[in-house]
Amino acid sequence: xxxxxxAAEGAALSKEEWLxxxxxxxxxxxxxxxxxxxxxxxxxxxxxxxxxxxxxxxxYCKNDCLYCGLRRSNARAERYRLSPDxxxxxxxxxxxxxxxxxxxxxGEDPWWRDERLVPxxxxxxxxxxxxxxxxxxxxxxDESYKALRKAGADRYLLRHETADRxxxxxxHPSDMSFDNRMRCLRTLKRIGYQTGAGMxxxxxxxxxxxxxxxxxxxxxxxxxxxxxxxxxxxxxxxFASEDRGSVALTLRMLSIVRIALPHVLLPSTTALATASSDxxxxxLEAGANVVMPNITPMxxxxxxxxxxxxxxxxxxxxxxxxxxxxxxxxxxxxxxxERGDFRA
Length: 344
Ligand code: SAH
Hints:
The chain contains 14 helices and nine strands. By secondary structure, it is of the alpha/beta class. It has a single domain (11-335), classed as Alpha-Beta Barrel (TIM Barrel). The strands form two sheets. Strands 2-3-4-5-6-7 form a six-stranded parallel sheet. A three-stranded parallel sheet has the order 8-1-9. Helix 5 (114-127) runs parallel beside helix 6. The longest helix has 16 residues, at 30-45. The chain is globular, with a radius of gyration of 19 Å. Residues 67-68, 105, 107-108, 136-138, 158-159, 161, 200, 229, 231-232, 234, 271, 306-307 line the site of S-adenosyl-L-homocysteine.
């Protein structure tokens, strides 16, 4: 029995052990990891792919993350903010298409303080009573997370970005803190959100070691969801001329995360689909079981640019569900519009 078999049986591996799983492609070939991950996913969730309606509701952001096109120093970013009514109608439209999870994602936009966001969540909860509400609006206070949970939010996505403190400080300005990110994630778990952590693959200065730290962190936090995608440079950021992250390594990490956390809800991300034309299906084959088609109203969709060439048509289009479903079917999967909650 080697390390990955131990991990598959639920054993916690040390950072050094994860390092050898991640880096030793001879001992742990991609194909073996993919096959293990895929059969683990099949035994927990079957061949279902859960579809989430993604609403990118604000491109304003007070943060200055070095990798992100929405960073506050990017004067060229087009800023928009959907109104509460527009967001509710987008949910109602998504509901009529069949979606039963809405993901409200945005920059850290100070306009959306609790006095506005809490009533919005309540409103969505009342018009779409059986839909899951997922928030992805960054770092907030414990009180805010509690109020939003009470208003009806079920899930919260907040990628940790990297579990390596030093690497975190290469990716973020000094007014952002690793400790606060960690506090937020622990709070979200404690309050009872289905919590999503996650990391980009191949950010400048990252290494197999930083990924090994991500694995020990994920193993310890035990998030219900993990978002993983390749880093893709954006031309108006300090990382404009850095290399993009490897698709192969992203797929390998998806498999490793599925093996370490068999029940995790694992999206095949837009960044992966952007980096490779067959990335979305490759992500499912690596062990993913969630996709998040975009249902943001058309005029705004092309303005939410975290990175260059973001895929906005085709497999990402929530208004084109039948072609999404058909592509999954051809690949041996079944698209599902159910809420798709975490199965403990
Ligand atoms: N403000 C929210 C949502 C951020 S956008 C928050 O802080 O959680 C969602 C994710 O996109 C980020 O967590 C980050 O991991 C990813 N992202 C941002 N810029 C990216 C880039 N250049 N390449 C790939 N992924 C990126």
